[in-house]
Amino acid sequence: MPELPEVETVVRGLRPLLVGRTVLSARYDWPGSLVTPDGPRFVARIAGQPVRDLYRRGKYILIALDPDTLIIHLKMTGRLYVVPDESVHDADRWVHFIFQLDNGQQLRFSDARKFGRVYLVDDPQTVVGALGPEPLDESFSLDLFRARLRGRSGRLKPLLLDQTFLAGLGNIYADEALWASQLHPLRPANTLSDDDLNRLYHAIRDVLRNGIIREGASVNWYRKPDGAKGAAQDTLSVYGRAGLPCLRCGHPVTRIVVGGRGTHLCPACQVWELA
Ligand SMILES: [Zn+2]
Question: Which stretch of DSSP H or E encloses residue 267?
Answer without folding.
Answer: none
